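The protein record quoted in full:
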Amino acid sequence: IIIGKNVHISPKAQIHTGGLIVDRIPRVHYKKPVVIEDDVWIASGAIINPGVKIGKNSVVLPGAVVNKDVPPNAVVGGVPAKVVRYVKL
């Protein structure tokens, strides 16, 4: 996990770098890095999945499940997480 400067990670947020491929026998564990750029806020209960990059100055809303990259300055929420709006600078 690479965490930038001024990143806030709220309680009960989860950041996962590994997973399980369930579509084959034997099942195989894998790992992928997670990158969280500068000035990001990850709210309570958010889940960040393996291989995701969260762009600079973004916000991950409470309970969001992030399974793909988040662009810079985005506010994402939902299951799966989608861009809700962009941060006004």
Remarks:
- The chain is about 0% helix and 40% strand.
- Residues 19 and 25 are 15 Å apart (CA to CA).
- The chain has a mean pLDDT of 96.
